[in-house]
Specification:
This protein has 13 helices and no strands. It starts with a helix and ends with a helix.
Length: 272
């Protein structure tokens, strides 16, 4: 239901000042004020949840993540035992109970189907979360971690991920920045190193990518980026924003890579 506050207040003021004509003008102005308020609220990522909305959002996030995981696993035409093992590993990292694991496995199987409606699934998820940007970022990060579990992002996986990001309204440049950050964070944490000869020391350039800043950024910009990322992945804040506890466990693992990158940059710059 649309708000009538602006129409009522401005309309009454108009009537007091200009009589019936003032009332009409006031109602018209109030209408546009109410529409403006609605637009601001619809884009507000921290607006309160309606009763029952948090559970709906969490269910939508859970279902969409695992079904698209299955779709990513099938990207090269077949699902290998390794890819199934990777999905099971993520379920274990989330510490899912038996019922949650059953639901996740069913969603994963649906995603593997040849007629899986990827675009419709993404559109329904976007509608459900109502432009809550933090959930979009968590969603994309989880999918990227899945795609990178074997240490490589395949061309078809990348194509699907960019398609998902576009469906969520994320510009290509912004998603590429998220991709570079997750890639760098995976290197810092040693994730996806299967098959490698051995872990190599991350470079300083990768450290900057982890924080999402350029190497010529000021010390203040580096500190600001670090604090923002640590805040975004803080368990309490993620929970308050509606991220399911099971997914918070995976998301907060990133703080170790973020801290490691920040320490490397501080040492190189002589920052305190």
């Amino acid at each position: 239901m649309r708000s009538w506050g602006g129409k009522l207040i401005v309309g009454l003021l108009g009537m007091l000042i200009g009589g019936p004509i003032g009332l009409a003008i006031g109602v018209l102005i109030g209408h546009f004020l109410d529409r403006g308020v609605e637009r601001v609220q619809s884009f507000n990522p921290f607006r309160p949840y309606r009763p029952g909305e948090r559970e709906e959002v969490q269910e939508a996030l859970f279902s969409a993540v695992f079904s698209i995981m299955g779709h990513l696993a099938k990207a090269d035409g077949r699902v290998s035992e390794q890819e199934i093992g990777q999905a099971e590993a993520i379920m274990s990292r989330m510490q899912l109970n038996d019922e949650q694991r059953r639901r996740a496995q069913e969603a994963f199987r649906q995603g593997k189907e040849d007629d899986f409606p990827l675009d419709r699934t993404v559109a329904e998820f976007r509608q459900r979360i109502r432009r809550r940007r933090h959930l979009v970022v968590v969603f994309l990060e989880l999918l990227l971690q899945t795609a990178l579990a074997d240490g490589e992002l395949h061309a078809e996986e990348e194509r699907i991920l960019f398609r998902v990001a576009a469906g969520l309204g994320v510009p290509e440049s912004q998603f590429r920045q998220i991709l570079n950050m997750v890639l760098a964070q995976a290197r810092f944490g040693g994730a996806g190193a299967a098959g490698a000869a051995g872990p190599s020391r991350p470079s300083l350039g990768e450290a900057y990518q982890v924080l999402g800043v350029n190497e010529d950024a000021s010390d203040q910009e580096v500190k600001k980026a670090y604090r923002r990322l640590m805040s975004e992945h803080h368990p309490d804040k993620l929970a308050a924003r509606g991220v399911p506890e099971e997914m918070i466990r995976v998301s907060t693992e990133k703080t170790a890579e973020i801290s490691k990158a920040y320490d490397m940059i501080k040492e190189a710059r002589g920052m305190r």
